[in-house]
Amino acid sequence: MTIAHGAGPERDLPIEGASLPEGWPHWFDPARDALLTPRRLRGLVHPIRLRLLTLLQDEGPATASQLGRRIGQSSGVTSYHLRILADRGFIDDDSDRGNGRDRWWRSRYRTTAFTLRSPDDPLDAEGVEVAEQYVRMVVDNHYARMVGYVDSFIARGEQLASLPWGFGDMQIRLTLDEARALSADVNRLLERYRREPSAPADERTDAVDAIFMFQLLPDEARPVGSVPSDENDEVNPPTDADGVNAR
Question: Distance between CA atoms of 236 and 228, rounded to whole angstroms?
Fold first, then answer.
């Protein structure tokens, strides 16, 4: 996958300097974390590069050979994509680890986040196209994580009954302002459990790394006021004009 046509120096913005949208999580530090917007994505809209950057952020510095083994690619392929990430400012050399034979790479940022709401990057048609490509890759990675867990069922066997991991969804109805408040509430709750990327194991011997995936999406399978497909189906009741179904 390549970045949308037309992206170039006249449209690109430096990674640093994005304006934080209102309500952005307070732990986000612009000096250590990169806030990406459509015009800050050049070089990253490629599944291998996104995977490499994620590994460097989550697991720490590594060589092209080590990363290649992690993602099932040759060191030549990973070296090529690592150089592009470096040229775009996402990663750099880890001079403390490198030597004459092995070149180590590290992420320049603790985390990266993406938004369509940065005031300094107003959204246009080209930005939407780039954003769609990037978000689609992120969603694919999330899906792969979920499938990976399902694929582990046979190996986990009877212990599955005692594990806390799972999937779920719930139909809700709320206004757009209530949806924003819900997202903020969830983020505040997660702060209690958040760990730094590449953080060492803590003193809790039973603690494990986990990922919390949160999606709040409009439920457009059956729009408000639609005709039920069965006489026993409940007709959606009338609501405020800004009310939406969501999951």
Answer: 9
